[in-house]
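Pasting as-is:
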Amino acid sequence: MQKNNEQWKNDYEDQGYFVLRNYFKPKQMDALRKVISTFHENWKSDNKQFYQEEAFNSSLITGSQYLNSLDRIKLFNFISSNEIMQVVDSLIPNQPAFMNTQLFFDPYNAEQTNFWHRDCQYDYGIEDQKKIIQDTQVVHFRVPLFDEPGMELVPGSHKRWDNQEEYEVRQEENNRVSSEALSTGKEIQLNAGDLLVFSADMIHRGLYGLDRLAFDILIFDSTGSGSIYADYVDSDCLPDKSQLEVIANPRLFLNTLALTI
């Protein structure tokens, strides 16, 4: 039995993540795999060197470069489906907005290592990171398309700063490297049809193996300081007027459009 909305919110507030097992129906997963596979094969063909040298993810999945309009509409409807929106509304009750999508896969080079990080570290210095994790909220909704090793997370780190071990490993200081094990880490194995919800600001890393292919939807709280994330939105990844008319529940996208117009 799935937890109710209040339990989801409490788990997220306390731990920074939760998992809903067997959350999506097989037909939903089959349809999603077809669209994502089309994107992935087209993306790999167009980014062959990058893919073979260092890539472990791609983004802008809902854009027009690699998918036709029909497939994009399928993705928009999945992103705004009742299953996703029920969870979104439990965590971000006021003005949740669509930011981006990402696709995570195993590196072509099997020797390439994973790494601990907070998403905000790529845009902000240390002092600003400390502020960001308190003031804003970006949530990952990860849908594994196949069974995979999943993620390793540091529970509770979405609301607190790194301890010494975490900081030295994440920042690669004092001869530590970001691929080292953390004593505070917790592995979350995932199967196709599961939904992993986690804070972008918590300390985390992906676990490679089993030819993983995980589709991530990024949603942000657009109220208050969160409106800064509108700057991260690529307009090509939003539905156009004709697509909005056939999306069953376009609220996420309309909230984003209201910030970017």
